[in-house]
Amino acid sequence: MKDKPLSAQKMNGAESLVHTLLANGVDVCFTNPGTSEMHFVAALDHIPGMRSVLALQEGVATGAADGYYRMVGKPASTLLHLGPGLANGLSNLHNAKKAGSGVVNIVGEHASTHIELDAPLTSDIEGIARPVSHWVRSSASSETVGTDAAEAVQAAMIAPGQIATLILPSDTAWNSGGVAQDAIELFAPAPFDQSQLAQAVDALDGPETLLLLGGGALTESNLETAGRIAAKTGCKILSEWSNARLERGAGRVFVGRVPYPIDIALEVLKPFKRIVLVGARAPIGFFAYPGKPAILTRDGAEILTLAGAGADLSAALAALADATDATTTPPAHVAEPFTPERPEGPINLDNLAAMIARAIPENAIVVDESVTTGRAFSPATKGAAKHTWLNNCGGSIGYGLPAAIGAAVACPDRKVLCLTGDGSAMYTVQSLWTMARENLDVTVLIFANRSYQILRGELTNVGVGNPGPRAIDMLSLDRPALDWVQMSCSMGVDAVRVTECDGLENALADGLASGGPNLIEVML
To answer: What region holds the Thiamine pyrophosphate enzyme N-terminal TPP-binding domain (predicted)?
Structure first.
């Protein structure tokens, strides 16, 4: 059988699905299966080549697939159980969609003869999938599963990355007649808008112009090109607040982010009369606030889109550098190596930023879901060892721990440092179990302020003055207090609690040297 081409082998639909995924480069599956998916589980068991990573909640599986794609640029698959299982994973599929991550969801469905009986788990799976998917299909028979799977991978790889959801009725999985599909052609990124190039060049004429970058414009080489353009034209460069992947550290071009707090963002963007977008959207606020603008740019600012997120951003920046005669100009804003002085005493936000900057290992991956605590991290860490920084692009909390799993599976030779608040981490706390099961090299910092601290600030931002004890109580996590050391150890991840800078420095050194998962509860 091994000597026959796949198209000549006899197999069921589930086996054709696994063979097709592998032939098209999908060799990791983040799984949380149920009864309808048992034939796919069986196929994963006896067909070599697919790494199956079990998650105890579907949001962990979908978030891990997001982190995986960001680091290797190819999709993983997820295996989810019917409509409710997919629904449990929607939050992190939303985040993945906003990040431009490619994911292939395999969602089990009742057998076609069973759907009409309206069994308890019957649901509109296509209807659940569509808001977070670019491509949705239900396989009609075992004969079409292979082709459907190949087209799902093709859809997931459309730049910058898309969510493809393939629904697999259980009878299409167990029936014979499956035909595996060999690798199919992938679509090239769309060309950038060359009709805007001349206007972009004219706009880049000094400090009143901003080159705003996002998505694939934030690779090391593209940032170097942007730095050359900034040095030649005098324009400023920034990135969006949330970035799927940003290359940072000493020797790389440093790019600041448009701030999250609306008042600060308005001040930062106020000087710019012209903004050229490469892979980024025009800046808007996360939310509407009474009496404040939702559009963050100054009135009358000229906004020009040279390249959207799905375009060839490297080509766009290269053309812009060539047209501004910047190709040989030394880049501006290259970060110098800088190690902050070692702080002492109790941990506060400034000390915390300095300690993280000192600890980031060379070539580390930092997964950041520290929305409130982490606002000071960017300037403090710009001169740290070279590293990759991943942000939550969709704003739905519970992203950090799962994305760290995906990053660690994708890059087992790199250290992963996950920065998250206690409120966010509780949404996908089951991630710790998967980290332990897979022995992933992840160091988790839980910032334990025992509250939804960001919402405390949002009360003021939306105009609620002097909130009372009942309002504050709804934003607190201290009745009872969460014990992250106990929770972590119960799931197989070593953990410590720290309150002082000395303790944090030692815990970071020990954790990063351990080679496996560990957690540090940082009391704030």
So the answer is: 11-116
Q: For residue 160, is the peptide bond before it cis, meaning its omega torsion is within 30 degrees of 0? A: yes
Taking the C-alpha atoms of residue 148 and residue 344, their distance in angstroms, rounded to an integer, is 58
Instruction: Report long-range pairs for 301-304 (Cβ below 8 Å, ≥24 apart).
Output: 301/269, 301/272, 301/273, 301/274, 301/275, 302/203, 302/273, 302/274, 302/275, 303/274, 303/275, 303/277, 304/196, 304/199, 304/200, 304/203, 304/274, 304/275, 304/276, 304/277
Q: How far apart are CA 328 and CA 317, in angstroms?
A: 14
- Given the structure tokens 């491509």, which residue do they identify? 135
Look up residue 415 and give its two tokens. Answer: 């250290």
CATH label, 6-174, candidates 3.30.70.3340, 3.40.50.970, 3.40.50.720, 3.60.110.10: 3.40.50.970
Domain boundaries, the chain: 6-174, 194-323, 349-523
Write down the CATH number for the domain with range 194-323.
Answer: 3.40.50.1220
Whole-angstrom Cα distance, residue 253 to residue 486?
Answer: 41
User: Do residues 61 and 79 make contact, with C-beta atoms less than 8 angstroms apart?
Assistant: yes
Strand 302-307 to strand 387-391: parallel, antiparallel, or no bridges (unpaired)? unpaired
pTM of the model: 0.94
Percent of the chain as helix, strand, coil, to the nearest 5: 40, 20, 40
pLDDT in tens, 39-83: 999 999 999 999 999 999 999 999 999 999 999 999 999 999 999
CATH class label, 349-523: alpha beta
* Run of H or E including 420: strand 416-421
Q: What are phi and psi of 295, to 5 degrees?
A: -90, 125
Give the single-character DSSP code of 467.
-
pLDDT digits (tens, 9 = 90+) for 406-422: 999 999 999 999 999 99
CA distance 482 to 478: 7
Within this chain, domains 6-174 and 349-523 share the same CATH topology: yes
Q: Rounded CA gap, 181 and 39, in Å?
A: 19
Contacts of 80 (CB under 8 A, 6+ apart): 32, 33, 58, 61, 62, 86, 88, 89, 105, 106, 107, 108
Under 8 Å between Cβ of 447 and 385: no
Q: Closest by alpha carbon to 232, among 143, 149, 322?
A: 322
